[in-house]
Amino acid sequence: MNVSTTLLAKLQYKLENIRNLCILAHVDHGKTTLSDHLIGSNGLIHPRMMGELRYLDSREDEQARGITMKSSSISLLYVPGASTRSDGPRSVLDEEKLSKGFLVNLIDSPGHVDFCSEVSTAARLSDGALIIVDAVEGVCVQTHAVLRQAWQEKVRPCLVINKIDRLATEIQLTPGEAALRFHQIVTHCNMIWSGFESEQFMREADSLLAQPITTTTNSSSEAESGGADDSSSGGMNGQGYGHTDSKSNISPPSSSSSSSAAAGNAAGNAAAEQDMFDPVRGNVCFGSAADGWAFRLEQFAEMYAEKLSCKKEALVKVLWGDYQFNPKDKSVTRCKRRVAGGPPPKTLFVQFALEPIWKAYGSLDSGAEEAAAVLGAIVRGRGLAVPKKTLEQSDLKQALRAVFRAWLPLAEAVLGMAVQQLPSPCAAAPTRIPHLFAESNEFVASSSATHQLARQVVLSQALAGLDSVEDEGEGEEGEEGDEGKKGECGEKEDENTANENENDKNRENKRSNTTSRNEGNSEDEAAYRDPIQRKACLLKRYRSALHASSSAVDAPLVIYISKMVAVPASLVPRATADPDSGSRFFTLPSPESESTVSRRGGGGGGGGGGAEDEKEVFLAFGRVFSGVARPGTRVHVLSTAYDPLDPTSHRQTVVLGSLFMMMGRALERLDCVPAGCVLAVAGLDACILKNATLASCPLLPPMTPMKFQAAPIVKVAVEPVAPQDMLALEKGLRLLNRADPFVEVGVLATGEHVLGAAGEVHLETCVKDLKERFAKVEILVSPPLVAFRESIHCEMEGEE
């Protein structure tokens, strides 16, 4: 199914049909192999190369080591049922793709613990996650770590049990033993997830017990002294940026707080009673990414429901339980209790799902005739469009793969599960937005009149300075931003002039309406002039847009940049200027800028120029959470240390450059990107080091910093072989620090340049990038530096 970028760009505006998901797993559990088959469903990989190409591993060392080191993103189209059609996915028309298709923004992440920072960047931009578990190895250390990462980021997970073929061919388990192992894996994952929830519950209980008991008199006096100030002075819902529900006060707007709270508690209790992973609910998938097949329970329930004269929904419920099928009267009964040490019972799941698969794999060892007979029976029984010559080929494994890919296509099972079980951006926003703004720094409401007065003075001064900041930003955007919009979108000059005139009229109407409203009602005028109330109104607007993931015209723009990506300049598409539109395009950094790295020389003793394909540029990889991003829009870059009460510190203004859709190894230029979609932005390398929040108004607090699973523990000292290359080394270290979200660079008191990494593999990757991509000089690396500290130990303290 070939997909055009134009079609994917149109689907970006169908918010309900967007799924942002990442693939998380332990190392070598099959993430990238599974990604190959999902990408191949869009016609980007030849069927024979699926699982072998490792499409999203674009680095040479990734291909050499066979592991993923950097997270990569790609946008895919999924049309339900397209893979199982008799005519194939190519029979889907463009109209059907646009009306029934889903846009899946897939982010593949590393599984090695040294690159856990890439997992954090992937989870921050996603609403759902595919947790891959090797059926042979089971739940491993990094499986536990990525489950915690998904839980911390409020990402809804689905489970994929991979490499089932190894159970039949290598370990040679029986179908009953394999089913028992699947139950153990699902139970183990549910226990881990339940442990996180119990941990949060205990933490909340401890925090409540640690709070001082306040009397009714103090509460009433606080309400009288704080009044409307407390209700409008804090976070995104007007109650402060503190925690509610152990997360934040950025809660969805509602007309009845009591009823919504009761409904939320009921929903939370109901969700807590059921397991997170349940094959009956459809969020667990079984398959083999290497052979390109996968299934869910509902697929086999649909196959056998007509034969058993029962409903598919009822059959799904008994497929995973301890039920067996009686062929005599075609009835389903509960299995007898298993005898200790005896064989596992032959359940419906074993009989209907696993035995046909085990029989097909077992036929490979019985000869070509037996394999052709078994595979041929599957083809005839399921009505599969598999050529006869495919079954008669000498490579029996390829014949089996062809049959299983037609019978149980992996993309249909996995993407179908993602579409049904994972939320859209607008559905995930009410849950994720409170978490993303949970730790925003803001004054906490106080009952002291002195604190309230000081708080109002500070807020008034902050908003007074904010007015000049906003006016300056609007003026600059009017001169530069609108031109950039015209340049990227390719609109005609007269259309832009008409739009500008219409915007001017709208601004005048808003001002006149505000003036008339204030003149007619003295209370409204006082509320509008009150900086606290004004701030509450602006934050309410942000809150509504973020919770709805709104792409409306008046929605404020909010983008989160999770990392900076260094890509070859030859892969960045350039737009051609339109002389009729008077457009201005945002080009890549010049060869002289620090953010542009030449492979033939990086400064100092490294040499100069080089061809265009030997340069690298930095793109910001992130996601639009509200509004519509367009080239030329002026935004505020808010670092993690930014405080809305002090809009002059830790804040910069910048104009968005060209926007791109990341397609693995390629980039596709876009005119605009609405809320709910991931993107790459050019022109931000001068103001963003690793990650940041972009907002159209500096009143918004920055998003919470990402949480990493580990810290840089391996540190080495680096120095150039030739002393004249010291400047090139310093420049290369700065560029490496920007390109890697987890690396640490610094200078000791002795003058040594220190490089910190998460582990040996991460350190080797950083040193290789420093030599070949950023510094372009020969460097010397010291043995690992071990910090030595000593303290005084008292025996009495030890005994106590």
Automatic annotation (TrEMBL):
InterPro entries recorded: EFG_II (IPR041095), EFG_III/V (IPR035647), EFTu-like_2 (IPR004161), P-loop_NTPase (IPR027417), Small_GTP-bd (IPR005225), T_Tr_GTP-bd_dom (IPR000795), Transl_B-barrel_sf (IPR009000)
Query: What GO MF terms are annotated?
Result: GTP binding; GTPase activity; ribosome binding
Domain (Tr-type G) spans 16-328
Ranges of Gly residues compositional bias? 600-610
**In the UniProt record, which is one GO cellular component term?**
ribonucleoprotein complex
Q: Where is this region: Disordered?
A: 215-267, 467-528, 574-611
Ranges of biased composition (kind: Low complexity): 219-234, 251-267
Basic and acidic residues bias: start-end ranges: 502-511
Does Nucleotide-binding show up as a keyword for this record? Answer: yes
Q: Pfam families recorded for this chain?
A: EFG_III, GTP_EFTU, GTP_EFTU_D2
Q: Keywords, A to Z?
A: GTP-binding, Nucleotide-binding
Provide ranges: composition bias, Acidic residues: 468-482
Q: What is this protein called?
A: Elongation factor Tu, chloroplastic
Answer whether the UniProt record assigns the keyword RNA-binding to this protein. Answer: no
SUPFAM superfamilies linked: EF-G C-terminal domain-like (SSF54980), P-loop containing nucleoside triphosphate hydrolases (SSF52540), Translation proteins (SSF50447)
